Each structure stands twice: as structure tokens, then as C-alpha cells.
Amino acid sequence: MSAMRSYLNRPVELCISGKKEPVRGILVDMGSDILVVHDGRRFHYVPALHLQEFSLAQVSAGEDSNLSSISWEAAPDLSYRKVLMNAKGIFSEIYITGQQSIHGYITSLMTDFFAFQSPVYHTILVSMRHLKTLIPYGPNVTPYSMNPAAFPVAPNTMPLARTMDQQLKKLEGEFIVLNLGERQSHIGLLKSADAPIVELITSGGASVFMHMDHVKTVHKP
Q1: Which domain holds residue 101?
Q2: Does residue 77 lie within any of the structural domains?
Q3: Angle (CA) 71 72 77, round 5°
Q4: Of 10, 83, 146, 163, which is most buried with the most CB atoms under 10 A?
Q5: Domain contains 131
Q6: Residues 53 and 110 occupy one common structural domain
Q7: CATH label of the domain that carries residue 193
Q8: 54-98 pLDDT, tens digit each
Q9: How many domains, the chain?
């Protein structure tokens, strides 16, 4: 990562796992396991784990003028975990899988996953290793322009285990959705969660098995 520090305050382009479009903007900060890019409007926090390609970006004169006005104070000892801790209770957009981002806020941070409250999915448990980007909203901005009273920042009420495999064990016997339901086979009754394999019973009564490393999100519909 140290070799990339020469690109600080310069326009860069990041290709990220699972995202079709690259993230482009000024590299304003970086830690041992995370990069921060400002695209002229918003800050993108990108875990280095999902960085497939990093290069200097070619920008037009107009773009360069917009990007050069960014004000940023570097954070000492910046890390992915510290970013998540500081983002608790702040309305944000996160991208994990599929074609859409999720909007809401982090309520709890555990050892290897966090709880995210969304007006669409309610409480989602997100594996830290599968978060691709986190983009905090600006001040006084809420998801879908909702009245803050309709979607207040509140503590998580779901009992949480320390790790994702322990959490899946707690959910045995419940109807759950894995990975935002990107496949029909990811929706069903969690029959067992004996690390490292989970077994789901689908709507047709068939068993589907998945390695826990591929569990990106969990939520109850």
C-alpha cells in the first residue's frame, strides 16, 4: 500500500470486485486496508480487499477543477474497522452484491459483520469481508428523502452473536434470506449452520448447501 501513497491528492480510478463501473475521483486518504476517494460530490470508502485495479485517472479540465476544491483532513491510523465504527448512526449507501446499493445506517459492529438498518430490508447482517463500498450521506440527507421521524436512528434490537458463523447458528429454524435473495435458492428455512456449511430448505423442499465464506448478507423478511 505504501507505493500508492504517491497518488494521494491525485485523480485515480479504482476497479472494484462486483461493480461494473469504476470509482473515479481524488484519492484523499488511505490506511492499511482502506482507501478514500472523493468523486466531486461524495466520499467513497473502499476496503482494499476488493481492489482489483488501481491507476491514475485521465480527467478533463472541468473535472479537474471540481475535484481540486475538495477539503479533507487526513485521519491518523485510518482503518476499515475505524471507518465502520465512525459510520454508526450516519445515513449511508453501501454496496455488497447484485445490481443495487442499500441505503440506511450501521447500528452495531461485531467481530466480522455489522448490522445495517434499511427502510427496505429492515435489519441486515453484512459480512465485513463482502462490503465493497461505503458512501456516507451529506448532512441532513436521509434515504429516499424520507422524513427523519419516519426512519429514526435507533439502536439494533436483534440479539447478535460475536461472529457471523455464531449468528447463523442462532438463526437455525428461522426463515431467512441470504445475499439479498439474488438467487431463489438463497431464500428459505435455515435448517442447520454447522461451520463451515449452512443448509437451507427452499420453497420446493430441496436442501441447498453453502459455504459460510459465501454468505454476504443475512436478513429476515
Answers
A1: 85-150
A2: no
A3: 175
A4: 83
A5: yes
A6: no
A7: 2.30.30
A8: 999 987 655 555 555 566 677 778 999 999 999 999 999 999 987
A9: 3
Burial of 178 (0-12, 13-18, 19+ CB in 10 A): buried
* Per-residue pLDDT, 63: 57
pTM above 0.85, yes or no: yes
Residue type, 96: I
Considering the domain boundaries, does residue 23 fall inside one?
yes
In the block, cell 436521509 appears at 142
Over residues 5-57, the pLDDT tens digits come to 899 999 999 999 988 899 999 999 999 999 999 998 999 999 999 999 999 99
CA gap 70, 10 in Å, rounded: 11
Among 105, 121, 150, give the residue marking a domain's end. Answer: 150
Q: Which amino acid is at 207?
A: S
**Domain contains 3:** no
